[in-house]
Every structure is written in structure tokens, then in C-alpha cells.
Amino acid sequence: MTLQNALLLACTHGLPILYLAYSGTDLLLRNRKRKEYVLVSLIAYAYLLLFAEEYIRNQVSIEYSPMLSQWFSLIGITLPGFGLHFLMEHTRFSQRFPRWLYPWVFYVPLFGVALLAAAGGESISIEQFTEAGPWKMPVFSSGYYIGLTASLLIHAIFFALLWAAKRKAPNQELRSVYRKLVFGSAVSFVWISVFGYLSFGASLPPYPYLYCGIIWCFYLQRAMRAHNFLVQYDKRFERLFQLNPDLILLLDEEGNLKNANPAAMKFFASFRVKPKQFFSLLPPDVKARFEAEEELLQVETTVRLDRYPLHLVLNGGYLWIENERHILLILRDITVERLQREEIEFLAYHDSLTRLANRKYFYSRLEQVLADSRDKGETLALLLIDLDKLKWLNDTLGHRFGDEAIKEVARILSERVQGRGMAARLGGDEFVLFVRSPSQQEVAELVQRIQEEYAGFTVRFGATQLGVSIGTSFYPADGSDIQTLVHAADHSMFEMKRLRYEHHAD
Question: Is 24 exposed, middle or buried (0-12, 13-18, 19+ CB in 10 A)?
């Protein structure tokens, strides 16, 4: 071989070998644990071996060409299998294959050729070569064109699958990856069609369609670099995932837990609940929204963990990981905030010590009940209650005992009117309640029971003068409005106090 021919081979085959070696190694080192990267590397190395075979074949004597051509043919048969295997992995179509069929189905032609060769069948490689200029050109037969056509059909299937994957890609970033692969596949298809079927004689190296491998590997490398960027982009947020104080759950579309951050693991462990059980605890309306593929933004819900109701704010959406759609749930525990808010709202209408309604809320409710009683022709009783000698109790035993007396009266009143009316603390030692549709006998018995129960409570203080004064009025007998009824009840209570004072004086 002349120096000129050696330099020519170094340019036409040596440089592609160096580029393919770099391309395959670069992708393999990016992610050796992912099958897609390994398969793309194998595609680059397979094209490298094809160029290496041609580099050697065009340097040695032509008599070795048929033997080396077998090497070329076996690698060429293996390449479509690598390509389809890569595509199935990258698009996750592989999950639709039975385990016993995948991935062996893509390498069936190679097994068939091996069996044919073992049985002594006809060789699949080109047997005749002729020298033309610096090249040892193959003599193409009808079998070559049949094989080339079959290769283009496989390439067309590959292109169609890529196009379908691009259209179904869930986000712009992944569509960009598929767009590169689609373009590279289209260029390779055209290149093979032109340089595979047309003869250019000695003006081009043998098998000029082989250079589509450089084009294809270039776009594969660009696509996988973009894909690797997405993976690295996700990893940038892995630290945030680990440190975020909110509860973050990653679920598949069926609600099965895939991952949970440390905050979520610690939170659920405190309730002796496994995070994977959480999705099943969500209310049906929240699950229905996920089934309808809705995103959740600041949705408040309540779940019960270990018998405790927890109030949570949910933010949920979908994201794609390794071409599979997942549900991302971000939870914030607002149980304490919710209880505090409910307490503030409660205290706007209730007394903080007794938990009874306050003056404003009671009279607002009484106004509504009076109107309802007026419409229905029903009666209503109003009771004013005053604790006797509360100041003496506070001054003698302390305010703690006075507060206990107030809370005891509140308990008695709440139990006695439950379901039939409302009790309230007007302030200090004054209480009020109303009862719907009572008879005068029922009201008299109610007054007696309140006094008896409170008297039983005051025994512990050793003071017989402790007690309650109760005044009553009736709607409509004593008045038709709140002010009149209160005045009548107050007058009745004053009479009770006067009679008790006269009794003690005697």
C-alpha cells in the first residue's frame, strides 16, 4: 500500500474510528448504570468495528476480503437490535413486552445467522470483491439489496416509533430530546437510501452508506447529553427534597409510594403509620381529583392517622421520571394552625373560661329563635342566673375556686338545656339561657335541679350562703321581645334574692 493510500484510509476510516471511540466512551461514562446509555455506547462501538473492519480489509490482500466481510455482516445484523433495544428502553415501551420475550426478540436475526452458519448454510456476507483505485470494492448481489431494503424497513419502524414517542412526550424538554433523535434518524434514512442503492464507483470508499453511523451517533450523543442534563437537573433539587421541612411524597399513578423525603418519614413514624398507606387515607374527593388528572393547589383536607385527625394543605401535580408519570404530593401539617384559627373563631362567639356562648352570640341566636317561635306559635322560657356570694368565695379561697364555681354552673346549664336551647355567660357571675317549648312545670323543675346540683358542688367549700339565684320569664306570656323578657326575668330573679335574704334574716 502506498503512503497516499495509507493517508487516505486514515482520513476516511481512521478519523471516524476515533470519533466513534470518543462518542461511545463519553456516553458510557455519563451513566453506566442506565441501559439506554450502555446501548447507545454499543451502537457507537458497533459502527466503530464496521469502520475498523473496512480499514483493515482495504489494507490487506483482497483474498481476505470474503472472510473479513463476515465480520462486517454480523455486526451489521446486530446493529438494528441495539437500536430497537435502545428505543424500547428510552421510551419505556419495554414494559409492554413479556419477560420471556424482551429483549431477546431484537436479536433473533443474529441467532438465526449463527444457527445457519453452524448448519453449514450459505454465507450471508459478500463473497466477491474487485480492486478499483485505492479500494477493494464489493460486488453487490440481489441479496445485498434485499438486506439493504430490510434494513431501511427496520429504520422506518424505528423512525415511526420515535415520532410517536415525540408526540406523546409529556413536556417540552423531553420532546426536544426526541426531536434530535427523529432528525438524526431521518437524515440517516435518506443517507442510507442514497448511498446504499446508488453506485459511485471508486470515487467513494466501499459501503459509503456506512457514514450514516457518524451522523446517527452524533445525534444520539446530543440527545443523550440533553437527557443527561435533565437527569442532572433533577439531581440539583435532590438536596432540596432531602432538606425540605414539608412532607414530600412521590407516588405512581396508582398511588403506590415510590419515595418520601426524611421529613415525611419522620412525621409518619411519629403516628406509627407507613408513608405508603397515606394515599389510601385521603378523602374520596381528593382521590377523584387525581383520577381526573387535576392539579391540587393549596387544598385543605383532613385525614385520620392513628385515630388523630390531621389537617393538611395539599399541593399535588404530575411529573415524569424516566418517562413514567408520577404524582408529586407536597403536604404541610396545619393542624396546630387550624386549631388556633378555630379557637380564635370560637372565642369570637364564646366565653373563654366556660366555653359557653357570649352575650353577643346568645342574643343574636335568641332573636332568631324568637322569630321562629313566633312563626310556629311555640312558647319559650328565658332564665337569668346569678351566682350568690362569688366575691366572698374569691376573697376567701382565691380566684381559682371562684373559677371552678363558674365552670361548674356552666357545665350544669349546658347539660340541662342540651338539645332544647342555649346557655351563655353574660360576664362575671351572670348567666342566661333559653329553653324552647317548655311548660311552666318543666321550667320549675329545671330551676330546682340547677340549684340542687350547684348546692351539691358548694358543699366542699363549707359555706351555706353559696347558691344561685334564678329568674324566669316566658314568651309570649311575659313579653314578645328580648328586652321585655330580660326585664321580666331580672325582676323574677330580684324577687328570689329578696325572699332568700328575708329567709336568712329570720
Answer: buried
∠ CA 222-226-227, rounded to 5°: 115
What are the Cα distances from residue 40, in Å, to 26, 45, 126, 223?
10, 9, 27, 10
Identify the CA nearest to 275 among candidates 264, 286, 262.
264
How far apart, in whole angstroms, are the C-alpha atoms of residue 213 and residue 48? 9
Q: What's the chain's length in residues? A: 506
Q: Is 159 left (phi over 0), alpha (psi -120 to 50) or beta?
A: alpha
Of 368, 370, 401, 367, nearest to 387 by C-alpha is 401
Confidence of residue 233 (pLDDT cuts 50, 70, 90): very low
Torsion of CA 186, 188, 189, 191, to 10 degrees: 120
8 Å CB contact between 136 and 129: yes
83: CB partners within 8 A, 6+ apart: 43, 154, 158
* Alpha-carbon distances, residue 483 vs 208, 435, 486, 487 (angstroms): 106, 17, 5, 6
**498 vs 38, 44, 469, 504, CA distance in Å?**
100, 108, 10, 10
241 neighbors 261 (Cβ within 8 angstroms): yes
Cell of 293: 388528572
Q: Which three cell numbers stand for residue 107?
A: 436479536
At residue 398, the pLDDT reads 84
Cis peptide leading into residue 80 (ω within 30°): no
* Residue 449 grid coordinates: 335541679
Biggest alpha carbon distance in the chain?
Answer: 144
Average pLDDT over residues 296-323: 79
- Distance of alpha carbon 188 from alpha carbon 363, whole angstroms: 85
Residue 83's nearest CA partner among 13, 23, 151, 166 is: 151
Question: Cis omega before residue 103 (within 30°)?
Answer: yes
Cell, residue 241? 427534597
- Residue 293 φ/ψ region, left for φ over 0, alpha for ψ in the -120 to 50 degree band, beta for the rest: left
pLDDT tens by residue, 74-92 = 888 888 888 888 888 877 7
pLDDT tens for 125-170 read 688 889 888 888 888 877 778 878 888 888 888 888 888 888 877 6
Q: Does the global pTM surpass 0.70?
A: no
Which backbone phi and psi does 269 adopt, to 5 degrees? -65, -30
Report helix, strand or coil for 422: strand
Q: 39-50 in b/e burial notation, b at 16+ Cβ within 10 A?
A: bbbbbbbbbbbb
CA distance 110 to 208: 23
Per-residue pLDDT, 365: 94
